[in-house]
Write a structure and sequence with these properties.
- The protein is mostly helical.
- The chain has one domain.
- The protein is built from 7 helices and no strands.
- The longest helix is centred in the N-terminal third of the chain and has 24 residues.
- The termini are far apart.
Length: 147
């Protein structure tokens, strides 16, 4: 039962990433441009389009990869969510500067949601569980030590 829930979580994460990526490329392109930090040395439209493609690719890979490749894509997806976190902070700061704290509620909520995305990626792909199993195995059977 737990594995079935994990599979559902992984498929939902993949669909979420694919949907967000498609929105980067189409309907919400300008909205996402507003989230690109001004200190980033790239054209905002390029960043939005590139991140949209990355999200689509990650979403597909999260759904289709198996075995160790799935574990790797879990870590890569989690790292991607960490990498885009500065954009969320930038959007919050810009929102507070433009409209005050009351205009920034959605961006504050997003800051708290981002770590959940990281956890979702690591949990649903089994990446975190594999790490825990590996650490426990190393503790139980240390390499290079005589008994």
């Amino acid at each position: 039962m737990a594995e079935r829930i994990r599979v559902i979580g992984r498929v939902l994460l993949g669909l979420f990433l694919i949907g967000a990526g498609l929105l980067h490329l189409t309907l919400w392109r300008q909205v996402f441009q507003a989230q690109v930090p001004p200190w980033l040395p790239f054209d905002k439209d390029f960043v939005v389009l590139a991140s949209g493609v990355v999200e689509i690719v990650l979403g597909v890979l999260v759904i289709v990869l198996r075995g160790k490749l799935r574990l790797w894509i879990g870590w890569i997806t989690g790292a991607y969510f960490v990498a885009i976190f500065p954009g969320n902070i930038s959007q919050l700061v810009d929102s507070v500067n433009d409209r005050g704290v009351e205009g920034s509620t959605q961006w504050i909520v997003r800051l708290f949601f981002q770590p959940l995305l990281v956890a979702w990626a690591l949990w649903s792909t089994g990446a975190f569980r594999a790490l825990v199993v590996s650490v426990r195995a190393r503790r139980a059977h240390p390499v290079g030590r005589s008994a």
